[in-house]
Amino acid sequence: MDQGEYNRIVKAIGKKQIFAQGDEAYAYGALLAGCRFFAGYPITPATETAELMSKLLPQIGGTFIQMEDEIASMGAIIGASVTGVKSMTVTSGPGFSLMQEHIGYACMTETPCVIVDVQRSGPSTGQPTEPSQGDIMQARWGSHGDYEIIALAPNSVQESLDLTIECFNLSEKYRNPVLLMTDGEVGHMREGITIPDFEGYKIFEREKPQKDPNEYIPFFPEQGKVPQIADFGCGYHTYITGLTHKPDGLPATDDAEIHTQLVTRICQKITDDTDNIIKVEDLFLEDAETVVISYGITSRAAINAVKILHEQGEKVGHLRLITIWPFPEKIVRKIGESAKKILVPEMNLGQLYHSVKEAVGYYAEVIKFSKIGGTLHSPQDIVEFLKEEKFNV
Amino acid sequence: MFNQADRIKEKLRSEMYPSIFCLGCGIGNVLNYTLRAIDECRLDFDKLVFLSGIGCSSRLPGYIDGEGLHTTHGRALTFATGVKLAKPELSVIIFTGDGDCAGIGGNHFIHAARRNVDMTVIEINNFNYGMTGGQSSPTTPVGGLTTTSPYGCLEQPFDLAELAKGAGASFVARWIPSYAYETIACIKKALLKKGFAFVEILVPCPTSYGKKNKIDDGKEGWDWLKEITILKSAFNKLSDKEKEQNKKMIIGELQNIERKEFSQSIDNI
Amino acid sequence: MRTEIRIAGFGGQGVILAGLLLGKAAISDGKYAVQTQSYGPESRGGAARSEVVISDQQIDYPKVVEADIVIALSQPAFDKYCQDVKENRNVIIDSDLVKALENKVLSVPFTKIADTLGKKVVANSVMLGYLQASTEVITVESMESTIRENVPEQTIQLNLEAFNQGIEFWKKGIRNGSG
User: Which chain A positions have a beta carbon within 8 Å of B76's beta carbon?
Assistant: First the structure.
């Protein structure tokens, strides 16, 4: 992106200091990251993002299209991506469920794209205007077969913008769909945000093949585990299929060895590099005997609760997961080794709680604190829960 | 390279042969005609994108040495929309089948036609879901025997040409492979048409539908197609009463209208 | 300093717009602010609620824990929200739409005042004026420029006038009932 394009984006946005909703921030972040194609379907509470993209994208030469459903939206953004255009869609629970097949397709075909899930209360139609964190496990396991996913969870409107940019960068770097797992609260709340300066953030572009078309093997990485696949229309004649394929892209469904190599590589390209992917934020962990592990909107209350208790002299710390998938296993296990008890508050009946429990094993006791129905945990809720017998804080 | 056949051969991925198609199936012919049409239109092969869904017909892009996007069942048109709108200088050609296009893909089909995005859809209709063993599809004729309609299909089939017309397609045509030159000429027109161009090509399915309905493989399958169809020119010559009673599928160019193409409209914003 | 404000009423009264304007004005004043809202599916009628937290430090928890100021523009809103308000709190009601024990609340005829200006729908701007004058949680300048930038152009004058009327009403010193 050059300065001229950046200036056009800022002009389209209007100003650099904005009192904005999360839903708007996803759009601003996407444009700044270089997204020039959006396909989506209206769904509460994510519709605002689509509406804003429909207004802004044409102003900077991008394309917006409202498709006939979420399945079509995913199809369209994958189609756009293979031509080299960064693309995104936004949805909520019911739409996210429909998108799963194509998310798997994007993983299998190593097509970069960004999906924002503004989680609402489910299951099914549920409470359309109430927030939740109910799609966390679906984010990891929603499609069929073996694959890896990268998912980030913002807890503020500014972070919504910043992490959307990060989602695009990760997607281009690892050639994988990346999810922004946000929620209806962050999506609709307004906070003051700053549009970063041109030099204030980085953009990562997918690697182009170094070889000529006749020597090019699309799904054979020239180095590392991420292949350099040519964009359509540059003379490389790449065949992309969701079937198990050889490195040359052509189907090979009756070879266990080829399937194993392919699927293992598309998983390992992410799992081998978690040190560069995973982001967390910690507070008062040094001598903490009780640790609260939270993510997304819940962390706003959790952090406040931990500060209150810390002021009272309690040995309570907090770990905020910014990356939720791949799960920050090593970091969480380390906490389990030094803390005695871990609390996992979530706006669901316990989802990431299971991953925490699995990582911690027998080192510490992991307890969940679930709240569903759309009401957030308040700092007082968490303080009182920690003061109860099981935590005895 | 003066011989068209040699030029076509160059466009095939030789490592993919022998193909998966059964003897007497018409899908290979469709590939042949399409590549000839592309050749005669002198299209820049580097700017073509071949898309498909899932099914026998959808295997075609795998045989072509071009940009190929083999997508999910029924959704190729959605990917094609993304490809075309993101990079309008590319031309998109979609191979699909009756089940892929009109069954699971029905909704995407009517919306793509409604939007009139510039694309060429070649739908190969073999009256059943062939690849999965011959289940009934939305185009199976009434009474047709399939693995999921063992007493004869009860449902009325779609006339996909009529559906495409109703949904707003700019160009609609139907042919059978025995009319080789007409089909090639038709595909040429479809490729050059700015807008949603839909070409349905009826083919036999000797292994599944044909076998079940006692249509032998080989020449009989192709004769059967001639029996169930009537040329548009012949249809027009029928009396009103005969037209009303006509049960044959009409083949020929069925619609060719001018409509604003979608990516042009987007550019105008 | 952390001030928690809750505005509640019916859908269509501009409750959410009021919260949004309040938040924007606070940002203009150089403060931190978070605004959240909830409403039912109906476009008109139904309950609507807007919460604004204003602070001079980064805000952790974005929702109202114990409101410092509650503005109730409907009876159901008053009945629901004016229970958990802090001791030194301000409860402000629309005197014609809400019945409450007068000596515990500030009762203002927002809708009536708006009506005299020609449009009942700017009652929320009157309310913002009264809020500014009575609590000084935002400055007059910030609120005026925020109104200018965020209402339809042809209604700017009317809204600014309504805002001003709200300030004037506070200055009159009438704390309850109609004036």
Answer: 75
Interface pTM, i.e. ipTM: 0.90
Nearest one of A381, A345, A386, A342 to A364, comparing CA atoms: A342
Question: Rounded distance, CA A98 to CA B253, Å?
Answer: 37
Element (H, E) at B210: helix B209-212
* Helix ranges restricted to H, chain C: 15-28, 75-81, 110-116, 123-135, 140-150, 156-172
Q: What is the pTM of this model?
A: 0.93
Residue B266 included in any domain: no
- B117: domain CATH number is 3.40.50.970
Is the pLDDT score of B38 beyond 70?
yes
Q: Does C20 touch chain A (CB under 8 A)?
A: yes
SS3 call for B192: helix
The reply to whether B268 falls in a domain is: no
CATH code that applies to domain C2-172: 3.40.920.10
Does A283 lie in the same domain as A195? Answer: no
pLDDT 10s digits, A263-298? 999 999 999 999 999 999 999 999 999 999 999 999
B145 lies in some domain: yes
The range of the structural domain enclosing residue A342 comes to: 279-387
| One domain for residues A10 and A128 | yes
Q: Residues of A with CB below 8 A from B69's CB?
A: 79, 82, 232, 240
Give the best residue of A15, A17, A18, A19 to mutate against chain C (max C CB count within 10 A).
A19
Q: How confident is the model at residue C156 (pLDDT cuts 50, 70, 90)?
A: very high
Chain B contact for A73 (CB, 8 A cutoff): yes
**A233 closest CB neighbour out of B67, B70, B107:** B67
Question: A63-92, pLDDT tens digit by residue?
Answer: 999 999 999 999 999 999 999 999 999 999
Which helix (H) or strand (E) element contains residue B67?
Answer: strand B67-70
The 10s digit of each residue's pLDDT in B196-223 is 999 999 999 999 999 999 997 788 999 9
Which one, of B198, B266, B115, B53, lies nearest residue A68 by Cα? B115
CB pair distance less than 8 Å for B81 and A65 = yes
Q: Which residues of B touch A238 (CB under 8 A)?
A: 67-68
Distance (Å) from the alpha carbon of B120 to chain A's nearest alpha carbon: 16
Residue of A nearest to C41 (CA): A129
- Segment A234-243, tens digit of pLDDT: 999 999 999 9
A374 touching B (Cβ < 8 Å): no
Considering only CB atoms, A232 lies closest to which of B15, B78, B83, namely B83
> Is C41–A128 a contact, with Cβ atoms under 8 angstroms apart?
yes
pLDDT for the residue C66: 87
On the question of pLDDT at A388 being above 80, the answer is yes
Tell me what percent of chain A is helix, strand and coil, each rounded to the nearest 5: 40, 20, 40
